[in-house]
Design goal:
GO terms for molecular function: metal ion binding; metalloendopeptidase activity. It contains twelve helices and ten strands. The protein has about 375 residues and is of the alpha+beta class. Strand 5 and strand 6 form a beta hairpin. Helix 5 packs across helix 7.
Length: about 375
């Protein structure tokens, strides 16, 4: 099935989905290794991911918004409500509660990193966009650490963040990169806003939006300008044994890693290299490189802090209510141009920069919602 027909067949599937940070193609490479220290954890991780995906399909997610009165402090100040649990290397969720909002750091560094990462994500959305937690209404932020045995992934299951410890051979602890935490929680923001389908181009956009805001959360915490940021996703997640800097590069898709065991980063930067595949839900972790690179181009063209203008345009697009769950690249690009026009004015520097950024990756913004193929310029 090609990407177009696969997308069309699944475009109605917009329920909250199971979203992982590590793409299946990367774990597939590991599972075919001759080294049991590599293939055994990878196979177990793939099996767990498949099980979790099945559970997502047969259970109804509770997406009830938190109430502002319950989440705000006595003075009305909007604060996070974090709970971190420890699965104790089991596959049972949520695990044992080990740290709640306001409690002091514990001895377990994974717990403290998860707590801090949830807070950093909450802070970016509130400070930069006025968004009150994931659902906009003070939703509690829950996470579980130490999931499974050598589990090589982190995921958002519609209700909580879940982190594995990695296998120690290829992957380190998944609480280490704050952008991984921000990426996964942003799947929750998308779930509560545009609810982009997790297949084909809308799925690649879903993944890309998570990369964009994951990177912005990291940049915001470091106080970085667009030109000073590394634009890497998952920097520090690989062990020293891996020939690679990160999972993905928004600045230069396709260059994040090139390793004997993992293979080479397959992400395209432009539509001319768009990957047509039936695996990975139609290549959602692969073709996300194209909208990722468009955002990088926009952010560096505008300069300054990327969350202030470029991020604002993406956030407006996601939350406008005008984006279809099965939006393709052309439709999303058109929505970003409209968002820039709405906020900054027709013919503004921002609107022109958005149009230019999409042109540089080979996407022509649709004026009417677009077709299904991400029209190449």
């Amino acid at each position: 099935m090609d990407a177009h027909s696969a997308h069309t067949a699944h475009s109605h599937c917009v329920a909250p989905v199971f979203c992982t940070i590590i793409p299946p193609h990367l774990l597939d490479h590991l599972s075919r290794s001759d080294n049991p220290a590599l293939y055994e954890p990878a196979r177990r991780t793939l099996e767990q991911d498949a099980l979790q995906r099945t559970r997502r399909r047969i259970t109804t997610v509770r997406t009830t918004a938190g109430t502002a009165s319950a989440a705000a402090g006595e003075d009305g100040e909007k604060k996070p409500r974090r709970t971190i649990s420890d699965a104790g290397h089991s596959e049972k969720l949520p695990g044992e509660k080990v740290r709640s909002e306001g409690q002091k750091p514990v001895e377990d560094a994974s717990v403290n990193r998860a707590y801090a990462g949830l807070g950093a994500t909450f802070e970016l959305y509130l400070a930069a966009f006025g968004r009150y937690s994931i659902d906009g209404a003070g939703m509690p932020l829950d996470a579980t650490v130490h999931y499974g045995r050598d589990y090589g992934n982190a995921f958002w299951d519609g209700e909580r963040m879940v982190f594995g410890d990695g296998d120690g051979e290829v992957f380190r602890d998944f609480t280490l990169p704050v952008d991984v935490i921000g990426h996964e929680l942003t799947h929750g923001v998308t779930q509560h806003t545009a609810n982009l389908a997790y297949f084909g181009q809308p799925g690649a956009l879903n993944e890309s939006v998570s990369d964009v805001f994951g990177s912005l959360i990291k940049q915001y915490g470091l106080g970085q300008t667009a030109d000073a940021a590394d634009w890497l996703i998952g920097d520090g997640l690989f062990t020293e044994a891996v020939e690679g800097a990160a999972l993905r590069s928004m600045k230069a898709p396709g260059t994040a890693y090139d390793d004997d065991v993992l293979g080479k980063d397959p992400q395209p930067a432009t539509m001319k290299d768009y990957v047509h595949t039936g695996s990975d839900n139609g290549g959602v972790h692969i073709n996300s490189g194209i909208p990722n690179h468009a955002f990088y181009r926009l952010a560096t063209e505008l300069g300054g802090h990327a969350w202030e203008r470029a991020g604002r345009i993406w956030y407006d697009t996601l939350t406008s209510g005008g984006l279809s769950p099965d939006a393709d690249f052309a439709a999303f690009a058109g929505a970003t141009v409209a968002a820039a026009n709405e906020r900054y004015g027709a013919g503004s520097e921002e609107e022109e920069a958005v149009t230019k950024a999409w042109s540089q990756v080979g996407v022509t913004p649709a004026e009417d919602g677009g077709g299904q193929d991400g029209t190449a310029a």
